């Protein structure tokens, strides 16, 4: 009887429920395939996407800088005009050409150097992108590009400023002197020079943007 009572008491006790742990399907599949997912693994594709985006911006800036510098160079190098001017009732023939001004010659020389720099950097960057390689392979390369962009940006800015002073003098003349406004008879020449200077400052802006992009790349690498 006592054994029956013990059996009845044991049968009356509640057995604890079984607890099972089931891994999510993604983790199980990752464990079976030997791959893992998470912030450490997904960071690499995001970094590659950002790198590609930066490389594309580099190419666009180089291409725009090449176009603006070529435009500034071609407009200034072809700026010339002949006309007549009247001073105290006397008419004199005048002829104006970009090579008559040292400031304009300086702008042409700097613009030509920027064109060469842009062509070289565009060729290097495009060739690396076609090979699916980073446009800037190392910090040393980035520092060289940054130094070049900075140097040419300062040079093109100084050239544009010097040419602007000469152009402003041609448009206003000199007070208390018979020197007239040369841009009235030479309006075509002055207009070409003004547009060339505008593209020169636009080139400076693009070079400065490239330098800032180089700094951002150096700060993140």
Layout of strands and helices, then pairs:
Layout: H1 2-12, H2 25-33, H3 39-77, E1 80-87, E2 90-97, H4 102-130, H5 139-172, H6 187-220
Antiparallel strand pairs: 1-2
GO cellular component, one term: plasma membrane
InterPro entries: CASP/CASPL, CASP_dom
Subcellular location: Cell membrane
Unreliable spans: 26-34, 36-43, 173-177
What oligomeric state best describes the polypeptide chains here? single chain
How much beta, percentage-wise?
5-15%
Helix content class = over 70%
What is the makeup of the main sheet?
A: 2 strands, antiparallel
Number of domains: 1
How would you classify the helix and strand content by structural class?
Answer: mainly alpha
Q: What string, H for helix and E for strand, traces the elements in order?
A: HHHEEHHH
| Helical run tally | 6
Taking all residues together, what is the mean pLDDT?
A: 76
Specify Rg, calculated over alpha carbons: 36 Å
- Spatial separation of the terminal alpha carbons: 83 Å
Write down the overall geometry: elongated
- DSSP, total strands: 2
Strand order of the largest sheet: 1-2
Transmembrane segments: 59-79, 106-130, 142-163, 194-218
Subcellular location: Cell membrane
Membrane topology: Multi-pass membrane protein
Domain Casparian strip membrane protein: 52-206
């Amino acid at each position: 009887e006592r054994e029956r009572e013990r059996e009845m008491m044991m049968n009356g006790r509640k057995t604890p429920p079984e607890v099972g742990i089931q891994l999510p399907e993604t983790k199980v599949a990752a464990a079976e395939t030997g791959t893992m997912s998470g912030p450490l693994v997904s960071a690499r594709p995001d970094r590659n996407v950002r790198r590609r985006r930066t490389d594309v911006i580099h190419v666009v800036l180089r291409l725009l800088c090449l176009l603006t510098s070529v435009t500034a160079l071609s407009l200034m190098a072809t700026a010339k005009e002949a006309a007549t001017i009247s001073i105290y009732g006397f008419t004199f023939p005048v002829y104006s050409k970009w090579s008559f001004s040292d400031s304009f010659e300086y702008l042409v020389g700097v613009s030509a150097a920027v064109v060469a720099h842009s062509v070289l950097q565009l060729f290097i960057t495009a060739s690396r992108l076609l090979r699916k390689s980073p446009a800037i392979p190392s910090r040393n390369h980035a520092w060289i590009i940054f130094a070049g962009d900075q140097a040419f940006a300062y040079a093109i800015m100084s050239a544009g400023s010097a040419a602007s002073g000469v152009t402003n003098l041609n448009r206003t003349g000199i007070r208390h002197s018979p020197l007239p406004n040369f841009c009235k008879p030479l309006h075509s020449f002055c207009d070409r020079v003004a547009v060339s200077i505008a593209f020169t400052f636009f080139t400076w802006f693009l070079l400065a943007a490239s330098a800032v992009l180089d700094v951002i790349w150096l700060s993140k690498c």
